[in-house]
Amino acid sequence: MNLAITPESEDAAALAARVRDFVTKVCIPREDAWRATGKAVSDDLRWELIGEARAQGLYGLHLPLEFGGRDIDHRSRAQVFEAAGYSLLGPMALHCAAPDEGNQHLLNLVAEGEHREAYLKPLCEGHRSCFMMTEPGGAGADPGLLKTVAVPDGDDYLISGRKWYITGALGARFAIIMARDGAAEDAPPSMFLTSMDTPGIEIVGEMDVMAHDSAGGHCVVHLNRVRVHRSQILGEPGQALRYAQVRLAPARLTHCMRWLGAAERCHDIARSHAARRRVFGARLGEHQGVGFQLADNEIDLYVSRQAIAHACGLLDAGAKGRHESSMVKVFVSEAASRVVDRSLQILGGLGVTGYTPVEHIYRSIRAFRIYDGPSETHRWAISRRALPAEDSALPALTD
To answer: Which residues pair with 154 in a beta bridge?
Structure first.
């Protein structure tokens, strides 16, 4: 895992250690005041953290070289993003939080010419974006149910539909909108790039979710005949489903990286408590019931790191990694959730209070088993690949 990072000679482990130190000294001290608001992270706080990260040379490490990043590979990101995730504010400081990190990756691979300057450049500079795919009762786990439609009107399109769970919509500079390219139900969808101040884009409201741990909230958005020029199609027309996979396969892994850092934070708090709390004549962690939970946490964290590293290696080697990212997403989302749950249990009554961040992380991480594809959807896709054809050459059971 100690991989070289260009253009400097600093390796991934050393860079991750710097990020962890930054998160501990800069981000964690700001958490209590943010959590006390009960709201999403303000842009004022986000820009403040970005400024601190820039000052220490840690901002945008994953971003393309042409826009000031260091373009570290996926295996290096695994260590750096985990270190950033040790505080829920860390990924915002490094500008590697969702949905912006996924949009950065997508635009870097697909956007060309003016799209790079108009959209990718400001995104790399620290401005925010949103990704409009999910719809109420429709596109989400199954993007094939997309109902939002882009009707041709001369050289323009008129986009109409309703989106929800649009993370970061409040205050976003621009949106990537997925819509069916034409009124026909079987019309293939395209991705459209447009400013969030385009007439017809209405943020109906911010959704009340289990935990607020992002900037810009999670919003319901109404699209009413939003006029965009055909030049605002991202990449090729009708390729939105393919581009969605280009975005989602690595994005699932970066979610795993960040949440693994948060789970490790909870584990560290729990094991510190277990070392100091004395009950029934011994330290809490010396009781087998608690000690085994700490051991299971260590196992889940270790195996999760190995799974992420393997899948990242495939991406760095040029493989699509869709199947592997699905498996890793299911395993890590559930393993990290187990780590946080055990940590809260070890803390006992303390764990359900706001005296530690474990309670907040417990609520926040629950959604990870749903977004970017719920575990059941991934298991369904994995099982389809695992099930052999009836006439396969695999050994058959005797009657």
So the answer is: none
Give a yes or no: residue 115 inside a domain: no
pLDDT for position 220: 98
pLDDT band at 393 (very low <50, low <70, confident <90, very high): low
Contact 15, 5 (CB under 8 A): yes
pLDDT in tens, 171-203: 999 999 999 988 777 889 999 999 999 999 999
Residue 113, domain member (yes or no): no
The tokens 């490094």 sit on which residue?
94
Task: Decide which of 7 and 288 is more confident.
Answer: 288
Are residues 247 and 355 located together in one domain of the fold?
yes
- Looking at the domain assignment, is residue 393 inside a domain? no
- pLDDT band of residue 3 (cuts 50, 70, 90) is very low
Structure tokens at 186: 């079987």
Q: Is 109 helix (H, G, I), strand (E, B) or coil?
A: helix
Decide: helix, strand or coil at residue 206. strand
DSSP H helical segments within the chain, as ranges? 12-22, 31-37, 43-55, 74-84, 90-93, 100-110, 114-115, 121-125, 240-276, 288-316, 322-347, 358-366, 375-386
SS3 state of residue 186: coil
Give pairs for 288-295: CB < 8 Å, separation 24+.
290/346, 293/342, 293/345, 293/346, 294/267, 294/270, 294/342, 294/346
Local structure of 191: helix, strand or coil: strand
Residue 111 within any structural domain of the chain: no
Q: CB within 8 A of 159, min separation 6: which ones?
A: 148, 149, 150, 151, 177, 179, 192, 200, 223, 225, 226, 227, 228
Structural domain boundaries enclosing 182:
129-238
Please state the pTM of the whole predicted model: 0.93
